[in-house]
Structure formats: C-alpha cells, structure tokens
Amino acid sequence: MSATRQSQIQFSRAAVRIFFANDRMNQLLIEHLDLAAWKARPPGNARTIAAVFTHMHNVRCKWVRLSAPHLGVPPLLKRADCTPRQARAGLAESAARCAEMLAEVLSGDHGRSGQFLRDGWARPWPAGPEMLCYMVAHEAHHRGQVCMLAHQLGFPLSNKVTSGIWNWEKLWKEPGWSAGPGGDSASDSEVT
Fold it and tell me: CA-CA distance, 99 to 64, in Å (whole number)?
C-alpha cells in the first residue's frame, strides 16, 4: 500500500473517532441536563434546548441526504415533542451515518460521495478535512448554546460535566478504542 493511501486511511479512521467523540459530548450534555430545562422557554427569541438538539440531528440528516444519500437518511426529529431519550437515540443514529460518510470520503474511496453539501443554497466542497472541521464546529457552537441556556434558565450543568466534554482521552476510550487521540488505532476494530 502506498504511503499516501495509508495516510488517507489513517486520517479517515481518526476522523470517524473524532466525530464519535464529538457526539459523545452531545450525549453527555443530554444525560446530565435537568429535565425541566429541556423545554423551558429561554428569554427572547432563542430556541429551547430541545430545539437545539433536534436541529443538530436534523442538520446531520441533511448533510447525509445531500452528500451521501446511499447511506440511508435517519428520520428527522420534531422539536415540538422530542424527548431527551428520542434526541439521544436520533443523535446516535445520525452520528453513525455521518461517521460512515466521513469514512467513505476521507479514506480516498470517494465512491458516490465526492462532495460535501452543507445546504441546498451552499456551493459544494470537495470532500476533505474541511468537511469534518465544519461538522464539528457546527456542533460545538450549539453545545455552547446549550450550556449557556441551561445556565440562564437556572439549571447549570456541573463543572464535572462541562469539563468532561474536554476530556478527549476518556471520550476516546469509552467506545473501547485502545489508543487515545493521535495514537495508533490500527489494532482497534472498525468503528463504522
């Protein structure tokens, strides 16, 4: 195998793990969020926390629908009646589809997914590291909103939780991956 191909495969594996660690951060927030905060109305015209998480899932579904529909698009969530349990299940499913999409396009095997379409109005990007960065940045933005909203609504998340989303070594090992970030993951089982 060529060095370039091997590098593509290593990056693809790391990208999949990064996206799953990213989703684990979302799951941690939902797990530890006070149920009363879930649908509490924030001041002004802000989304509820339930609406933020359903938006994150639905945007992931859009990315898959536009960029890799052959992988299967998970059902959308309805922010009006979505429960934390439904959000966690939906996010887990959409994370799996996004991880499959990342694995396919970043391994150099573009197959049917040679482009990343963020939205119907946006110009397509060639599938690459920018795709992963955009996806993670979008979700990090919304995690920040959730932490801020929970605090403003009187249900702040504990320091253990808000610090826990930064413990990548732990997030990385929870699914059973032997190597932490930057480690040799060739011995780990496939993650998609």
Answer: 10
Query: In terms of CATH, what superfamily is 9-173?
Result: dinb family like domain (1.20.120.450)
Q: Which residues lie closer than 8 Å to 10 by C-beta, 6 or more apart?
A: 185, 186
- The enclosing H or E element of 115 equals strand 115-116
Question: Domain extents for the chain?
Answer: 9-173
The model's pLDDT over 28-51, given as tens digits with 9 standing for 90+, comes to: 999 999 999 999 999 888 999 999
Phi and psi (nearest 5°) for 115?
Answer: -135, 155
Residue 168 CB partners (closer than 8 Å, separation 6+): 21, 180, 181
Give the pair of three-digit tokens for residue 127.
């599938």
| Tokens 């579904």 sit on residue | 61
Residues 37 and 16: their CA atoms lie apart, in Å, by: 31
pLDDT at 112: 60
The rounded distance, in Å, linking the Cα atoms of 192 and 19 is: 11
